[in-house]
Amino acid sequence: REVIVLRDIEGLSYEEVALALEINVGTVKSRLSRGRAELRRRLEGSL
To answer: What are φ and ψ of residue 12, in 5° steps?
Structure first.
């Protein structure tokens, strides 16, 4: 959730998100991918 908020809502770069959360850029990208997929799954179920 944090990664999605920072990247998609706050508009931070991958590098900025990584620094803020003290994780690798690759981890940011993988969490973002999984988070977006989960969000998409949940939204499809509610429509």
So the answer is: -75, 155
Domain range summary for the chain, segments of one domain joined by +: 2-46
> What's the whole-model pTM score?
0.84
What does the alpha-carbon distance between residue 31 and residue 6 come to, in Å, rounded to a whole number? 12
CA atoms within 13 A on the CB side of 30: 5
**Contact between 34 and 27 (Cβ < 8 Å):** no
CA angle 7, 46, 30 (to 5 degrees): 30
Can you read off the two tokens belonging to residue 30? 């993988």
pLDDT value for 3: 97
What the block records as the tokens of 21 is 């959360």
